[in-house]
Amino acid sequence: MSVLSYKSPDLESGGATVEIKIFPPPSVIQLYNDKKEKVPTKKVIGLIDTGASKTAIDKNIASELNLIARDKQKVLTPSGDSEHYLYDIVIVLENIKYLIPLQVFGAVLDKQPYDVLLGRDILRYCTLIYNGWNNSYDLHLHGELINY
Questions:
Q1: Cα separation of 40 and 20, whole Å?
Q2: For the whole model, what pTM was predicted?
Q3: Sorting pLDDT into bands at 50, 70 and 90, what band is 80?
């Protein structure tokens, strides 16, 4: 089990955020490795969002990493229904040596202070302890993930 601990005086306004690295899906990583080329990655800030069933990345990241959209799916947001492309990615949470393969939504997050909404599809591998009184949170990662 790996633990990520975070303490901030502005946890209430900034939310539970974590630095993450985004990679293309494992099959694409393998292609880059076979060609002995550098795998494209993007280091970003993610907001832990217990209200989101699925993780979302800013659609500009999908463009930067040349991700291929797999499909479109309707998503219910506070603004109503909308359709979003789905992408396969791998993420690594700050200082935690596990690769987490996911299928994520592409979303417009460019006006937010984060590039990723980390949903319950990631939290199902975790125990999240949010301590508002102490302005801190602990994220304990469990489960069968790919250790590297």
A1: 14
A2: 0.87
A3: confident
